[in-house]
Amino acid sequence: MDLSLFSLKNYQNNLSNGSVTWSSPSNIALVKYWGKKEHQIPENPSISFTLDDCKTITELNYQRKEQVEDAFSFKVYLDEEFKPDFHPKIETFFKRIESYVPFLKEFHFTIKTKNTFPHSSGIASSASGMSALALCIMSIEKQLNPGLTDSDFIKKASFLARLGSGSACRSLEGDLVVWGKHPEIEGSNDLFGVKYPYKVHDNFKNYQDTILLVDKGEKQVSSTVGHNLMHGHPFAKQRFEQAVDNISKIKNILETGDLEAFIALVESEALTLHAMMMTSMPYFILMKPNTLEIINKIWRFRQETGLPISFTLDAGANVHVLYPEKDAKQIYEFIKTELVAFCQNGHYICDKIGFGAKQL
Ligand code: DP6
């Protein structure tokens, strides 16, 4: 795809100072992104549910520098607390996106961010955090270039978010987003996420995601390291082909509302993701004993009741319990009585499918 869509050559420079705020949600992948090429290009297409309650709210204050210098200037605060340790990640992000948003060095920025979920919940805040920041930067671009259309705004925001963290490009819209080129998904591409363009059965409307916080500690292996271990991985080629097949399959599942097929596909994706970690070199395990306890309990309950409860995992020990709204009462009761005991300090988060980012 032509990258010139994302360049910004002529823009007004009479903007002096101001502030923009965006709230952007997290997302949970059904078909996982695991493995990337240079410049944050995914090895395979992925699809996710956008979440509703788990989000980052970022306020970006900008102030034109009196003299332009060849350096980024910014300060980051999380929950009002100065966070110099966030600096390197933002600096890397700014370097990656600078050629597309050349005004970055013209301003001094204060980035004030907060999450609706606890920072130490083991929930990655990179998807919601990077997408919120990318949207704030795009709001500045929009003021410098008022002719930018809404559709180009959202594409470029997702494009920038991807350069911050791959999965972040799937957080801007909802309720389902595809990232990565797939022959059967019109408009899908490697550079930004697109709203899933086909019919979705009512079974998946308002789908519930209860996130069981099994381990709230820092991950021992970051996603970035994990992605890199897919280079030269003995099963990489088959895995990337499987993800392409699974996107074809899920298209049919989403249309027909086949919950049984949905469960099989989503759980297999989650376990395959972790199987890739266990079979890389060096190998690692992010699941904890309680992750497996929960999975086994879910399987037993499903077998006994026939209810369409399923799980997925991201790159950590926490379990996302997925289920349709129509069975929410019975399944939530089961979660509270049987599964919460396996959560660290009994903590969990009730979330559901959401519809993307909002400017505040
Ligand atoms: C397991 O998007 O966190 O959650 O691009 O290096 O920032 P970077 O990785 P990241 O990887 C997410 C991996 C995953 C699966 C998924 O969300 O598709």
Strand percentage lies at 15-25%
Briefly note the structural class of the backbone: alpha+beta
Tertiary shape: globular
Task: Find the count of extended strands (DSSP E, 2+ residues).
Answer: 14
- Helical run tally: 8
Helical fraction equals: 25-40%
Largest sheet descriptor:
8 strands, mixed
The value of Rg in angstroms is 20 Å
**Spatial separation of the terminal alpha carbons:** 32 Å
Bound molecules: ligand DP6
- Uncertain residue ranges: none
Average pLDDT value? Answer: 96
Order of helices and strands: EEEEEEHEHHEEEHHHHEEHEE
Features:
eight-stranded mixed β-sheet; 360 residues; four-stranded antiparallel β-sheet; alpha+beta
Write the layout of secondary structure elements.
Elements: E1 17-31, E2 36-37, E3 41-42, E4 46-64, E5 73-78, E6 81-82, H1 87-97, E7 107-115, H2 126-144, H3 150-164, E8 176-179, E9 194-195, E10 208-212, H4 223-228, H5 236-256, H6 259-278, H7 289-305, E11 310-313, E12 319-323, H8 328-339, E13 348-352, E14 358-359
Bound molecules: ligand DP6.
Residues 29, 32-34, 40, 46, 124, 126, 165-167, 223-224, 227, 273, 314-315 line the site of ligand DP6.
